[in-house]
Write a structure and sequence with these properties.
This protein is 49% helix and 16% strand. With 445 residues, it is of the alpha/beta class. Among the domains are: 57-187, Rossmann fold (3-Layer(aba) Sandwich), CATH 3.40.50; 206-361, Rossmann fold, CATH 3.40.50.720. The strands form three sheets. It has a seven-stranded mixed beta sheet, sandwiched between helices. Strands 1-2-4-3-5 form a five-stranded mixed beta sheet, sandwiched between helices. The protein is globular. Bound molecules: (2Z)-2-iminopentanedioic acid. (2Z)-2-iminopentanedioic acid binds at residues 90-92, 164, 166, 193, 346, 374-375, 378.
Amino acid sequence: MNAGIDIFMEGLKARTPGEAEFHQAVLEVVESVWDVYDANPRYKQAKILERMVEPERTIMFRVPWSNDKGEVEINRGYRVEFNSALGPYKGGLRFHKSVTLSILKFLGFEQTFKNSLTTLPMGGGKGGSDFSAKGRSDNEIMRFCQSFMTELFRHIGPNTDVPAGDIGVGGREIGFLFGQYKRIRNEFTGVLTGKGLGWGGSLIRPEATGFGAVYFVEHMLKEMGKEVKGKTFAVSGFGNVAWGAITKINELGGKVVTISGPDGYIYDPAGISGRKVEYLLELRESNNDVVAPYAEEFGAKFFPDAKPWETKVDIAMPCATQNELNEADARKLISNGCFLVAEVSNMGCTSDAVNYFVNNKFTFAPGKAVNAGGVAVSGLEMSQNSMRYNWTTEEVDKRLHLIMQDIHDTCTKHGKAGNYINYVKGANVGGFVKVAEAMLAQGLV
Ligand code: 2IT
């Protein structure tokens, strides 16, 4: 490793002890952009990288609420407002028991570069809580969301910070959060994205992360002279992102044979299509966080406590959560003939897996490029809200297509060496340069 990177990372770790996921996300970016940073005295003099790894503002707060038995429960709420060089802070809220400051800092940091790649005017942020909807009633989820917003409202706004969904936060939660914001502020504004279609939401937003990811994969395949049609896919997760990706893969003539949950994975060689895809939404709404019931419902195979990466497929798309695919999984996929991995979850692959892919010149693209369609359509929802107007499905989908193509072009521009496209480097350098230039132009802030 490069001595300059070592010193940089040691300094970061000393200032942020115990934030392993954040360090992992920073190291990936720093390794990619170091040459550009080193070669650009303007960036170095302004300590752009050192500034970028320090969030502009971190908010942590108490979220008290009462459950259906009348007992008091306390969760911790967060909003990390990472970088506003390109626009209002923008990024999702994650409600999951695994949420810590480190997780939200890694997500907010990545979001800054991802949002930069979308070409839309959005800064980076992330928030959430260690609250989990598992086993909770809708009423409990509502009371939690209302309490969460009762503090968050003072920190956000349509020109300041615009949260959205992430793991554990979908249309239902956005509804409860929006209702409370509106009630406190007495304002109907585009303060959140992922809203319902009848009250300010954008067409295609629920599908956008998955659709955009498959559009990106189409571009990757095109570089290899291939197409989605006839290919077999392993997908992980079973939430909104997996649902969107599976829907689009089916539309384009591919076949998806796996989904997964915290309990294990499903192998369905007949392909997950038709009613089986809609069933994913029922699984999520059940608040149980398991996929095993799919096997009983459709006569497929369930592998408890295992990951779908042991399946023989052409293409793998991790759609669940961070570090869900490690080096051993990467080796297994490749030895089974897999020729493309597109990370859809944020930081879905461990550092070892990413290095293994890149060092072996294997076709791999990182989440911040592949999954950017989600936040991109959030950006389009903001535009529509500002205009007080709604675009048609075709209009939104057309813009999503253009944005994903643009991101692929950026990755190619900054990541192509010989006939290998290093999408990790391409995405990081492309995202970084735009943020760095904006920060320089805006002075020492
Ligand atoms: O990780 C992500 O990009 C999201 N969860 C979506 C963020 C957004 O503001 O739509």
